[in-house]
Every structure is written in C-alpha cells, then in structure tokens.
Amino acid sequence: MAGPAALLMSIRHQAGALRTLQAAAAPHPPRSPPQPSHTQTFSAGRPGPAWHSPGEETEVSEPGGAQELEEERKAPGKSPKEGEESGDLSSLSPGEPSPARLARPGLARQETLRETALRSKMSRLIEATFRLVQVEQTLLLPLLQQHPLPLHPKDSIEFRNICSHMALQREGQQFERDLHEAHQCLKTIIEKLICSLAVFPSDSYIPVRSALRQILQNLLAM
User: Fold this and answer.
1) Longest dimension (CA), the chain
2) Is residue 60 one of the residues assigned to a domain?
3) How many domains is the chain built from?
4) How confident is the model at residue 150 (pLDDT cuts 50, 70, 90)?
5) How far is the C-alpha of 74 from the C-alpha of 33, rounded, in Å?
6) Phi/psi class of residue 172: alpha, beta or left (left: φ > 0; alpha: ψ in -120 to 50)?
7) Which range has highest mean pLDDT (60-74, 128-142, 193-207)?
8) 8 CB neighbour count, 10 Å cutoff
9) Is residue 150 part of a domain?
10) Each residue of 34-58: pLDDT tens digit?
11) Residue 192: which domain range?
12) CA 110 to CA 153: how far, in whole Å?
C-alpha cells in the first residue's frame, strides 16, 4: 500500500511529461533566415504543430513580373483560363489547393491525413494528461489521506521518459512510435488507478473512478 507521498511523486512526473508534450506540440522555429531571391515564397498550407509537412509552398513572381502577367491576361485573345496557366494565382482562395498539391494529389492527401491523425493523437494525449493530474490532485489525493491505495509511480516515471525521448525526435517514424508508446503508458496508468480504487472500503471512490473512466474514454477516442 502507498499513501499520499507515492501519489505526489506520480503527479510530479506526470506534470513534467505534460510540459514536455506541450513543448513538443509547438510549431517548429525557423531553421534559417529567408535567403534573398528573385521570388517571394508564401506557404499554401495552414499553420500546424511540429509535424507540418514540406512541399506545400507556392512561388509568386516579383511585382514587376506580376504586372507583366496581368497585362498579358488582359490582352485581346487571352482568356481567363490562359491567364491562370501563365502563372497568375490571384484567383486561388486560401482554401483551394496550390499548384504544387495539384501536381501531386495523391502524396498531398496522404501527408494531410497523416498530419491530422498525429495532431489529433497528440491533442488527446495532452488533454488526458492534464485531466489526470487535475483529478489526482483534487479528488484522489484527499482519499489517500483516509485509506492508502496500491499505486505504481514507476509507470509515471516511464511515461515521462517516453515523452522526453519523443520531444527530441519531433517528427518521423520514431516520433510516431514514441507517441504510440506514450498513449499506451498513460492508458496503463489510468487503468491501474481504476483497478486500485475497486478495493476502497466506501463509495467515496465512485466520483474519482467515473472521472478516470471519462479520461480514458477521451484518450482512446478515434
């Protein structure tokens, strides 16, 4: 049996893992300052977390070149479609695919689905970790003052270690494996807490168990 000290140790490691996850989910800092060139580059994709995929940029000519294109588009015999083919991208709204994506529709869609899945999984992991620490501090800790429970702080230590390793990867297959392992580890922590509460001698554990089950359900949501 373990008392409040073991739970406080678990909470401390979980809170450290939460800070690491939040930092890992932040956008990449720019790797290098933009280099001067004859073109201006604008991102066609939406801002996202660290796994924002490359290859989604559209080049727009300098103002002088854009004026020439505009004059050619307005010239007799030029249709609007021919103006678009000559490089005028003004008709594309922010929500429409860029020419780079249109050139590789299959690859662009695959990258977008992967990014969405990773972003969703990371968001669920961060939310579940935050809620778990909250429930442990406000509901479970007062119960342990009355009745010790079998706790497993080593799982929280492992969870923090996995999150720290994942933050160093930031992207790629290893990042995805670490993210999956972090999900599984947090799932194990919550399930063990639910099982431990089953031996509590009174019904005062029911709100805690219900809150933990809700966290687990949200963590595993597809």
Assistant:
1) 88
2) no
3) 1
4) confident
5) 37
6) left
7) 128-142
8) 14
9) yes
10) 555 444 443 444 444 444 444 444 4
11) 4-23+112-220
12) 39
Q: If pLDDT is split at 50, 70 and 90, which confidence band does 75 have? A: low
Residue type, 42: F
Classify residue 222 as exposed, middle or buried by CB count within 10 Å of its CB (0-12, 13-18, 19+).
Answer: exposed
With a pLDDT cut of 90, the percent of the chain lying above it is 39
188/191 Cα distance (integer angstroms) = 5
Hey, what are 113's tokens?
């689905």
Place of tokens 């429970």: 149
117 lies in some domain? yes
User: How many whole angstroms separate alpha carbon 101 and alpha carbon 84?
Assistant: 16
Reference 73, options 56, 59, 55, 61; nearest CA is: 61
Q: Is 80 exceeded by the pLDDT of residue 89?
A: no
Residue with tokens 């406000």: 138
Identify whether 78 is part of a domain: no
